[in-house]
Amino acid sequence: MAKLSGGKYSAVYSLSMDSYPELTDGCLTHEDDHEGTSGKESPVSLPQQVGWLDDGEFDRPRLKGHNDSRVKCMCCIIWILFLSTTGLATLLGLVYTGVVHFTSYRNATASRITTAHSIYPNGTDIYSSDRKLQVCKTPECIETAASILGRMVPNADPCQDFNRFACGGFATKASLSWHRTRLKENPEQILDSYASYLIDVLSESYLPTDNLITSNFKTLFRSCLLDTELGTRKAFLDIVDDLGGVFLSSIQKDTDFDLTTLLANVTRLYGASPFFKIIIHGGGKFSVVNRFSDRLVNLLRDSSDDIPNFRFLLPSEYYYRTEKVETLQTQKINLLRRLVAEVPQSASSSIDKVLDEVFSFEDELHMILYDDESAYLNEDFWDCSQRRTDILSKMDLQFSGYQLNWTVFFNNVFQGEHMTLCNVQLNTAVQTLLQNTPKHVLKRYTILHTVFNTDLLVLFPSILKQLTPKQEHNLLIEGFDHQLERQCVGYVFKFIPGSLHCTINNTKRYEGGRKFSSVFDTIRATLSDQIVKLFDIDIKDSQPIINRCSEDVGQIWNQTVNQDSSIPSGFFTDQSFTINIINLITHQNIQYLHGHKKPSVNPLNVASVAQFVGCLYGRGVSGPISYPLSLPINVHFGSMGSFLARQMTEKLDLDVVLNHYGQDLLDHSAVLNLALKLQCLASVYSNFQLLTEGTQTYKVRGDHIKNESWKDHLSLKLTYEAWLRYNNGKRDVITIPGLPYNQNQLFFVLFAQTMCEKVNKRGILDHYIQDSSNPLPPSKYRINGAVMNFAPFARAFQCPADSPMNPRRKCPTV
User: Fold this and answer.
1) Is 7 helix (H, G, I), strand (E, B) or coil?
2) Under 8 Å CB-to-CB from 21, ≥6 apart: which residues?
3) Is the Cβ–Cβ distance between 293 and 376 less than 8 Å?
4) What is the DSSP-derived secondary structure letter of residue 423?
5) Pairing with 319, which of 42, 163, 381, 555 sits 20 to 30 Å away (CA)?
6) Please, how many CA atoms are within 13 Å of residue 183, restricted to the half-sphere of its CB?
């Protein structure tokens, strides 16, 4: 590499595999003789095309037997003349054949793009002199290089707009439409590709190699495609009739029922909780609760449990009568009015009266169920360590206002199985409400609650879509309403999640688990360090916070690769999806009552692991969350690591901090410290301009998005520090041909690409200005906002002081 005037470098070398037959194991290995650097890296130019590159850092391969012993002067001259002539002839031949290219670049961006080894934040080399430099030449590496570069605009200046540099290529290639005004590769395109993969697998005939999950999945999928009554009015009325029927024209008929039997049936068979929730602790122990705080609801969701009453909204939203409550109730009434419009002998006025009675009762009930002073969120409650043997015998006396025979109720729910009642946390105000409510209203509410708030709702796709447009379980079908196959994949996945539906040999299983654990464990250890530093607490006190943040994330690999099914062979029929789903819901709820958690896996996690182990290889799917298993570990830290860290930080925000403060795990200074950091972010993000409409300028609502923005900042710091911690100057550097960036620069590119987005003007209005529930700014500001406040980024790209991505004033993350 020759240095030109102005500090530019003129030579970029391409390496042909055919030129070096001695290459083995997919890598060209060089001994690194790098000694005593000044800590400053030599810039190289950006390539015009993807190729096999020597980034100017590697010594030329040394031929065995090379004789560099000193000889007499005349011999030296002769040999120098001979070698110079031979070398010049060889070089001219390589240039002629295209193996070597001489290129000159003269742009400011190229002068800041450094070579393919990493540096520590202080600018010194991250690897020691005994480390080896390797170039990966596998097909997976070639595809990865093309995938990463395809999302980029390499000639953009990363110090001016890093989002454009890292994601500009994605924005250029992505297509929007009238109905789709925003597109994110994560999760939308990833799930689109994974849904296509599942449709391909499930559309295949039954094969001898199918495991039990795949075989059951195929049958359930087919029954969905063939069920002509799915979501129809007839299906709705059939389910209502099975639950006991609603007689709109006869109050007397809706009064003639046994409340104890009805509640036991909907609780056991469908997991409903009209007036209270049965919480299973395991080990034959359970509690009965109807005092719900937002924290309790979120805690149960974290453990794959749920409270049907608050499936759509949190208790506090009902208590304070937020706008969301009115919207939800209006949606339910309009949907029910259409579904029951053809009930015999029913008139519009009678339908409206019934619905008004039911939802007025529901509103009042939910307000009473809210209890923000949830004193039972402690270990004694969950361990049942304070149980009393006489608690059941007193329930009929203490809670007679519920109008239940409690002994009969529990016998019907558990079918005579011996269970220990540990805790009863029932609100006495509910008794008064039930006593003052007509019996026919209680029956109608119980039945409609069961249909709308349990998994039975999946049988009514149009209702599910309208009521839960942004729920996690709906991810696979979001945006694909017109395609029945995609609908069915999404609905089926909710009940049989987690399986890859592809064969993984033991080698891949072991290697994948090892790499996943390396990334996860290092990030978790780094999170522990950061929590101790952030809240000024000791390691012991930080463990409850660490466990809450990381427990579910750490199970992603096992839940996906080692998923077992409790559903026996032949459980489904391909004749009726409705019957299959009802039987499956019943099976899973009975399993829950016996102490087994309900399966609940985010499809994005499964899709990411499927990419990781190669199930989707060759289908045009590579990144941005995960890349094939064989890729260098630094790629997995930048992509999968960023994804896992962001999931961990989801459970670490101001609400969580206040929760731990209330449990005396943190003091007031920790809360104040975090509040100051959030306020700094709010101030910075409030300067980001979203849109200008005439004389009106819309900016990011800093106070609204500061919580989520802090999570972005923390996940970036966690992943970067974890990568440095793992690498620690001891591991060989493996580079990917075609990516002329050092490992630090590549890390930041991969981090940004997990959030690439294209959004048009209408999309900004719809998603970021008019949608007050969206806690995130556009991805452009998520990416730029995170890196501009992170000093190692500026050092990696040598950004000038006061450039847009390197302001002097930065908000501290920890």
Assistant:
1) helix
2) none
3) no
4) E
5) 381
6) 18
User: Distance (Å, rounded) from C-alpha 391 to C-alpha 414?
Assistant: 17
Number of H helices, E strands in the chain: 33, 13
Alpha-carbon dihedral of residues 647, 649, 654, 658, nearest 10 degrees? 90
For residues 20-41, one letter each, b for 16 or more C-beta atoms within 10 angstroms of the residue's C-beta and e for the rest, the string is: eeeeeeebbbbebebeeeeeeb
Q: Indicate if the pLDDT at residue 621 is higher than 60.
A: no
Residues sharing a CB contact under 8 Å with residue 691, sequence separation 6 or more, in sequence order:
697, 698, 761, 764, 765, 769
Q: Residue 14 forms beta bridges with which residues?
A: 53
Per-residue pLDDT band at 557 (split at 50, 70, 90): confident
Where are the strands (E) in 686-795, listed by range? 689-693, 696-699, 733-735, 757-759
Task: Give start and end residues of each alpha helix (H) in 98-152.
Answer: 139-150
pLDDT in tens, 738-797: 899 999 999 999 999 999 999 999 999 999 998 877 889 999 999 999 999 999 999 999
Cβ atoms of 536 and 669 closer than 8 Å: yes
Q: Which DSSP string corresponds to 462-498?
A: HHHHHH-TT-GGGGGGTT-TT-HHHHHHHHHHHHS-S
DSSP helix, strand, coil percent of the chain (3-state; round to 5): 55, 10, 40
Between CA 772 and CA 540 the distance in angstroms is: 39
Query: Is 728:707 a contact under the CB 8 Å cutoff?
Result: no
Mean pLDDT of 261-268: 95
Radius of gyration of the chain (CA): 31
8 Å CB contact between 64 and 166:
no
Between CA 644 and CA 554 the distance in angstroms is 9
Q: Are 241 and 337 in contact (CB under 8 A)?
A: no
**534 in Cβ contact with 674 (< 8 Å):** yes
Angstrom distance (rounded) from CA 387 to CA 384: 6
Whether 362 and 449 have beta carbons less than 8 Å apart is answered as yes
Q: In angstroms, rounded to a whole number, what is the distance separating the alpha carbons of residues 182 and 301?
A: 28
Which pLDDT score, from 0 to 100, does residue 663 have? 65
- Give me the residue label for tokens 């003349």: 81
**Tokens coding 753:** 């690409």
Instruction: Answer left, alpha or beta for residue 77, where phi above 0 means left and psi between -120 and 50 means alpha.
Output: alpha
For residue 703, the one-letter residue type is D
- Torsion (CA) 716, 721, 723, 725 in degrees, nearest 10: -170
Backbone angles phi, psi at 81, to 5 degrees: -65, -40
Residue type, 344: P
Q: How many residues make up the chain in this entry?
A: 814
Q: Rounded to the nearest 10 degrees, what angle do helices 779-787 and 162-173 cross at?
A: 160
Residues 6 or more apart whose CB falls under 8 angstroms from that of 667 comprise 661
- Alpha-carbon distance of 541 to 562, in angstroms, equals 32
Burial class (CB in 10 A: 0-12, 13-18, 19+), 173: exposed
What H or E segment, with its residue span, contains residue 285? strand 285-289
Residue 145 burial (10 A CB sphere; 0-12, 13-18, 19+): buried
The DSSP bridge pattern shows strands 757-759 and 182-184 to be antiparallel
C-alpha 765/C-alpha 781 separation (Å) is 16
Question: Among 70-74, 422-426, 489-493, 634-638, whose mean pLDDT is lowest?
Answer: 70-74
Q: What is the DSSP string of 46-63?
A: PPSS---EE-S-SPPPPP
Q: In the 8-state DSSP scheme, what is residue 18?
A: G
* CA dist., res. 229 & res. 459, Å (int): 9
Q: CA neighbours within 13 Å on the CB side: how many for 518?
A: 18
Q: Which residues are within 8 A (CB) of 652 and not within 5 positions of it... i.e. 6 or more apart?
A: 531, 545, 549, 711, 714
pLDDT given for residue 270 in this prediction: 93
Identify which of 270, 253, 369 has the alpha carbon closest to the alpha carbon of residue 317. Answer: 369
Long-range contacts of 595-599 (CB under 8 A, 24+ apart): 595/280, 595/281, 595/282, 595/283, 595/284, 596/566, 597/303, 597/304, 597/305, 598/304, 598/305, 599/304, 599/495, 599/496, 599/497, 599/498, 599/563
